[in-house]
Design a protein that fits this description.
Layout: H1 15-66, E1 70-74, E2 78-83, E3 104-105, E4 111-113, E5 116-120, E6 126-128, E7 139-145, E8 152-157
Antiparallel strand pairs: 1-2, 1-5, 2-3, 4-7, 5-6, 7-8
């Protein structure tokens, strides 16, 4: 026996079915786009945190290598590494790897930080703003995304070792 061919009225999709499929695809596309954008923004903020960590480590390495005081500072929108104990002396600022100017504009890279000054002695120990005494508690720096201020990360400097996490 042969199956009966479908009548002309039963062949194909109705307009309502097509509209429902298009709506489902539109909702899925919106969800995927939002998730992708969030992942990209989180990745950028993590990359900027890693960049900041590498710059602070540069100051710590120079202090140990040269047996001198080196530091890193941020006013929230800019960041710089300097030799000596005074972050205000622009002659002591160094050009950072991968940056065209000193100080480095953080906001141009899409993030900002809380203001901080961090010094390192010849042993790589961290000091907060003066060499009077080493850090006794964790120094926490908040890193905030400029396009999305609700998105933040924290960078923590551990006393005695200067470990950054």
């Amino acid at each position: 026996m042969r199956p009966r061919p479908a009548s002309r009225a039963q062949a194909g999709l109705t307009l309502i079915e097509v509209v429902v499929v298009i709506l489902i695809l539109a909702v899925l596309a919106a969800v995927v786009t939002t998730q992708y954008t969030d992942a990209v923004n989180t990745g950028r903020l993590n990359a900027n945190k890693d960049l900041l960590i590498s710059y602070i480590r540069l100051a710590q390495e120079r202090a140990m290598k040269q047996a001198a005081t080196w530091g890193a500072a941020s006013n929230g929108a800019q960041f710089w590494v300097f030799s000596g104990a005074n972050p205000a002396v622009s002659a002591a600022w160094i050009n950072l790897p991968g940056s065209a100017s000193t100080p480095v504009s953080l906001t141009a890279n899409g993030f900002s930080t809380t203001s901080f000054t961090l010094l390192f002695d010849q042993y790589g120990r961290p000091y907060n703003a003066s060499l009077a005494a080493p850090l006794t508690a964790n120094l926490t720096v908040t890193i905030t995304s400029v396009p999305d201020p609700a998105r933040t990360l924290t960078l923590t400097v551990i006393p005695e070792t200067g470990f950054l996490q």
